[in-house]
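Field notebook, page 255. I keep forgetting to write these up properly, so this time I am using the form the group agreed on. The chain and the ligand, NAP, are recorded exactly as supplied. Prediction of the bound pose follows.
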Amino acid sequence: MLLQVPRVLVLGGTTEGIELAARLAARSDLVTISSLAGRVGQPRLPDGLVRIGGFGGLDGLLSYLEKEKIAVVIDATHPFAARISRNAEIACSRLGLPFVGLLRPAWTKSEKDIWHDVPDVLSAAQFVDKAEARVFLSIGRQELHIFSDCKDAWYLIRAIDAPAERLPLHHKIVLQRGPFDLERELQLLRDHSIDFVVSKNSGGAATYTKIEAARLLGIPVVMINRPAKHTLSSVASVEEAITALDDVLRLHWRD
Ligand code: NAP
């Protein structure tokens, strides 16, 4: 008789998702399936099994979890990916599945940082779009269209893949994938005489160097605050997520 092992779904698209998959795929007491939304043309592929693309809303996710006999869901998506987290929480609660939310801590402002906190991307666009302003826009591709009505400032837009979205009138695109080195970030901001950095408060180390560079150069950062994500309690690191997973497996999984 084949020994059944629990199947763990890791909702990823983040550094934590990659790290979790690397740790869990090495284990023989479970099977790990990572899920990516499919936004990036050539994503970094996690270890273990991988599926790519949306599930088709809450109903699609419910069917997927049942069909694939998922035992536990770990939500390691980005702090700004709120919809998938909400769907995952609801789906797990409806099916009675354990859910582990992993949310990396937000960056906090130090004394030398000049931050202007805004609640969302639209507020950031309204704040920076001033004549003569030179703006470093590093928020990914998906919400760039919110800047498309900006006609006054000049934007240096960084993304992994070339944006297909409508863009602000005056701009230049640089295609780069993190993590980014501090020296290069300093150079980028200096070379383009940047006046404002626009950033999501993503947290984590991979993109923090732009915040450090802005601090060192005395450049204000328009910091977009996080949306509400998990309603259940969450953990803050890969290590804690693995401990939480082992706890729920001990409690819920009987072979
Ligand atoms: P979102 O607004 O929460 O989700 C939008 C839709 O994308 C979801 O309803 C779902 O489609 C699909 N989706 C999202 N994450 C998925 C995943 N891991 N696997 C399968 N489908 C997923 O998310 P988002 O802000 O568009 O982010 C998409 C992905 O990019 C996430 O995996 C996230 O970790 C990663 N990411 C996002 C950001 C950011 O700034 N938002 C930054 C870095 C990485 P269905 O409803 O069809 O299931």
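OBSERVATIONS:
- Residues 238-252 form the longest helix (15 residues).
- Residues 11-14, 35-37, 39, 54-57, 60-61, 77-78, 80-84, 87, 140, 142, 200 surround NAP (CB under 6 Å).
FOLLOW-UP: compare against the apo run.
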